[in-house]
Design brief:
Blueprint: E1 2-7, H1 11-22, E2 26-32, H2 38-45, E3 50-51, H3 54-59, E4 64-67, H4 71-83, E5 87-90
Parallel strand pairs: 1-2, 1-4, 2-3, 4-5
Length: about 100
């Protein structure tokens, strides 16, 4: 089972989370999102920890971090994740297409 942490729970993050929830080979171990999104996270993923910073996210020991977040959130988490040697994938929607 692959342990995944998700950064962001907006439209794209919610779609990614729903896909992860349907895959029995994936365990979502943390979601970095705003506190107001906690209810939505629980509705999609169940009792997954909502974390507020990179150190809390890393403490959940993900094998892969998927970033579906703003530029600010991406930059706040990317460097610590990469320093920890964890694989990272980024997703973005390009509004010009």
């Amino acid at each position: 089972m692959q342990r995944i942490a998700l950064i962001g729970f907006g439209g794209l993050g919610r779609l990614a989370a729903a896909g992860f929830a349907r895959d029995p080979a994936i365990e979502v171990v943390a979601v970095a999102a705003r506190p107001r999104q906690a209810e939505g996270v629980r509705a999609v993923l169940g009792d997954v920890p909502l974390v507020a910073d990179a150190q809390a996210l890393l403490a959940t020991r993900p094998q892969l971090v998927v970033a579906c977040a703003s530029h600010e959130a991406f930059h706040a988490y990317a460097e610590p994740v990469l320093r920890a040697g964890i694989d990272r994938k980024s997703t973005r929607l390009n509004s010009s297409h």
